[in-house]
Structures are given as structure tokens and as C-alpha cells.
Amino acid sequence: MKPLHVIMLLATLAVACSTGANQETATTADVQLAEGQQNKIDYTAAAVDSAAAPAPPAPEEEQVLNSGNAIPPAPFNRQIIRNAQIEMECADFKSFSAQLYGVVKSNGAWLDSDQETQSDYRRQNVMTIKVPVAKFDALMQAITSLKGDVREKKTNSEDVTNAIVDVQGRLEAKRQTRARYMELLKQANKMEDILQVQEQINSITEEIESATYNIKNMQAQAAVSTITLTYYQPIETPNGYNEPGVFTRMLDALGKGGSGIVELSIVLLTLWPLWLVVAGLIFWIRKRRAATSVVKQSS
């Protein structure tokens, strides 16, 4: 009996030792798992904080920010239409014209129109010159430096950059709208729907073409400037006087007006047979109306 009790006691002790070892192993594993999860959470939080934090500025940007000045924007090519009007008086018309044509050609410009006139008092030429905008100032300087007196010089400019950007934005919006209508056209099944969508597409296409033309027109005007040049040579009259003043021209106008009245009177007198026919017709109409009135009163 004693050996049996001893064996049972030893078995009980072995089971207890095994259970304690397993509990200790499980406890150690749980602690390691918890530590691993905590490390994972800490690593994830550190990664989020690192992504949310702003990157340190570059040395140049840090220097600019510390100086209190903003970073300058990138340069933008503005679209500016430049035009000018010049009026000059010259002593030798032919010599001035020859020099002018040479100056225009040397600056890469060309003549858009050329109109020469001559009166009793002056010989004059009105030219419209087209020049690339990069040569505008150089050509203006070259023309005004010719041998002659500048009587008038005006320059004007118009910045169409904002207008071009605005039209380009609306153009892009219209293109996107047309693309959506094209998708609707592919999905339409009824003839009525197809016709309505096609009508909208045609209308938007016309607006796109008009906007495209406006953009190209403004860009072309900004790329090429226009100079309107008027130059003249006074012509001396035989009596030594040049072009008459305002008072003299007013008297001439009055004289010409009187001459016009005389000419008109002569023309009216020339048509006297017509006036006789008209007078006879008026007399006959009045006589007929009077006879009709008498008949109505007697009845």
C-alpha cells in the first residue's frame, strides 16, 4: 500500500509542476505579444507624425522666409497691343520717302497701305506700317530721327493678357461641355434626343470657333504693331504764300457755296418743261375735285 501511495503522490506533483510551467510560458508569451503590439502602435504613430510634419525648407527658401520677402513669381509673357501715329513735315518729299522705305525695310517692317495725295498747298503721303513688336521702339526712333520736323506723335498700348486668359478659360469649359454632349450623343437612342443633342453640339462648336478666332486675333495684334505715318511737304504758291489759314478757307467755302446755289438755279431753270407739266397736272386735279364737290352738293 505504501508504494502505491508514493506513486500517486509523485504523479500529483508532476502534474502540478507541468501546469505551472505551462502557465508561466503562456504568461511570458502574452507579455511578449503585448510588447510587440505596443511597439507596432508606437511605430505607426511615429510614421503618421513624420508624414504630417512639414518638410524642412530648402536653404534658399529658408533664407527668403527669414528675410520676410516672398518668393518672386515666375515671369509671364504679357500680350500688349502697341500702336502709334506720327505726323512729320519734310523739306524734300522724294528724299524723305527714299530714306523712310530704307528704314522700314531694315527693321523688318512692311507697308500695309500707302496713299499719296497732292493739292495746291502740299504733297502728302499716309502710310500704315506693320512691324514686329520687338522692333517697334527701334522703328519709332528711326522714323523720328529722319530729316524732318515731327508735328505730332502719339503712342497707345492695350494689355489684352487678361482678355486672352479669360477667353481661353471659357474656351476650355466649352470644349469639356461639348465632350460631355458627345458622350450623351453616343448613349441617345431616340431620334428626338439625338437631334436635340446634335443641335447643342453645333451651337457649342460655333462658340468654340468664335472664341478661337478672338484669341488668335488678339495674339496677332499683340505680335505685330501698327504705325500710321503721315508726312508732307508744303508747296509754295506762285505769289509766295503757302497753305491758306482758317479765315481764308472759310471765305473760300462761302464763295464755293454761293457758286453752288447759282449752279443749282441754272439746273432748275433748265428743267422748265417739267415744271410746266407738273403745274398743269396740279391745276387739272384741283379743277376735278371742285367739279366733284359741286355735283355732291346739288344731289
How is the largest sheet built, in terms of strand order?
2-3-5-1-4
The value of Rg in angstroms is: 49 Å
| Sheet with most strands | 5 strands, mixed
Order of helices and strands: HHEHEEHEHHEHH
How widely separated are the two ends?
A: 175 Å
Quickly give the structural class. Answer: alpha+beta
Binned strand content:
15-25%
Q: Which geometry do the CA atoms define? A: flat
Detail the poorly predicted runs.
1-75
Strands, total number: 5
Q: What is the residue-mean pLDDT, rounded to a whole number?
A: 75
Give the quaternary arrangement of the chains. Answer: single chain
What's the arrangement of secondary structure elements?
Elements: H1 2-52, H2 59-67, E1 80-89, H3 93-106, E2 110-118, E3 122-132, H4 136-144, E4 149-159, H5 161-187, H6 191-223, E5 224-234, H7 246-270, H8 272-298
Parallel strand pairs: 1-5
Antiparallel strand pairs: 1-4, 2-3, 3-5
Helix pairs in contact: 5-6
What do you see in this structure?
The protein is an alpha+beta fold and 299 residues long. The protein has a domain of 59 residues. The protein contains eight helices and five strands; from the N terminus they run ααβαββαβααβαα. A hairpin with a 3-residue loop joins strand 2 and strand 3. Helix 5 runs antiparallel to helix 6. The longest helix has 51 residues.
In short:
Helices cover 65% and strands 17% of the residues.
